[in-house]
Specification:
Layout: H1 2-92, E1 95-102, H2 109-118, E2 124-127, H3 134-142, E3 146-149, H4 156-159, H5 163-181, E4 188-189, H6 198-201, H7 204-216, E5 220-221, E6 226-227, H8 238-250, E7 254-260, H9 266-281, E8 284-286
Parallel strand pairs: 1-2, 1-7, 1-8, 2-3, 4-5, 6-7
Helix pairs in contact: 2-9, 5-7, 8-9
The protein binds zinc ion.
């Protein structure tokens, strides 16, 4: 019996002895949690601080790189200004020849481009639309010449029937050229027959309407002050063309020279080497037309 009592007592003791370890484990867990949270918080702060340092370093590096770009930019701007000044000085003392070829492209255009390349001369091609010449339009641009607008069809009756008709012909050609070459149009134009063409003079109200419409669309047009005379008949002899150009150019400092690029005008192609040599001897340099070129126009807007 005693023995049982002693056993119960012993069990009670055991129960009493088990309580402290549970509390201890709970404390331990809380302590571990607190330590973990504390370590987590410290680690987070360290990471944030490192990140901030990295960002500051990155900012300083970008700032210094920006300073260096700005300084390089200023240096380049100065170089451009100096070169522009030197260029303007050279140009102001030079005679400028704008070689212009109307009505192309043709089977002669590639040979014409080769001759121009040989003399390092850049020209302006006032083209119309002709099927089968897509590569030629592209080649004119590729070799550094200006592809300019001479209307889509060159049909006097059609283009000069109304201002709307003229503009639609100009835009139709430029859309086609953009589709072929992938380049924006130069918006440099020559009226078929020149701006004093009989078709326009007879209907001067159309002429002024065309001018206004062209101006509002950003177009500039050019006539010429030197006529090669290569259009006076189907095929003019080579010598006459050379003489007309060299005589016409001898009296001016800026020459816009009218020539033609059609299959029948092969003598114009043959005349080119002598024309280029002769003009160079007269002190000319060759430049394509641009929107600021000499104001050589037979008829101007009111
Ligand atoms: Zn023409």
């Amino acid at each position: 019996m005693n023995c049982n009592v002693s056993t119960e007592y012993a069990k009670g003791n055991i129960r009493k002895n088990k309580r402290p370890p549970i509390l201890g484990i709970a404390y331990l867990i809380i302590l571990l949690l607190c330590s973990f949270l504390s370590i987590y918080s410290i680690t987070k702060t360290i990471i944030a601080s490192n990140r901030q340092n990295c960002l500051v370093e990155e900012f300083n590096s970008l700032s210094s790189s920006n300073d260096s770009i700005l300084s390089e930019n200023t240096k380049l701007q100065n170089e451009i200004s100096e070169k522009q000044y030197a260029y303007d000085k050279i140009i102001s003392n030079k005679k400028i020849a704008h070689l212009t070829f109307d009505d192309g492209p043709s089977d002669n255009t590639l040979k014409l481009l080769d001759v121009l390349d040989k003399y390092n001369a850049k020209a302006t091609f006032f083209v119309v639309y002709k099927e089968g010449y897509d590569d030629i339009y592209k080649e004119i641009i590729k070799r550094g010449h200006v592809l300019a607008n001479h209307t889509y069809s060159h049909s006097y009756r059609k283009i000069y029937s109304s201002a709307e008709s003229f503009i639609s012909e100009v835009e139709a050609l430029d859309n086609k050229l953009k589709e072929i070459t992938g380049k924006e149009p130069s918006k440099i134009l020559r009226f078929p027959g020149g701006s004093n063409t009989g078709y326009i003079n007879e209907q001067s109200n159309i002429f002024q309407s065309i001018f206004k419409a062209l101006e509002s669309r950003g177009y500039t047009y050019f006539d010429w002050n030197v006529d090669s005379s290569d259009a006076t008949k189907a095929t003019v002899d080579e010598k006459s063309i050379i003489n007309s150009v060299l005589e016409g150019s001898s009296n001016v400092n800026t020459a816009i020279i009218l020539m033609h690029d059609t299959n029948m005008k092969y003598t114009t192609l043959e005349a080119m080497p002598e024309i280029l040599k002769g003009l160079t001897a007269q002190g000319y340099i060759f430049m394509p037309l641009n929107h600021d070129s000499a104001d050589i126009r037979f008829i101007k807007s009111n």
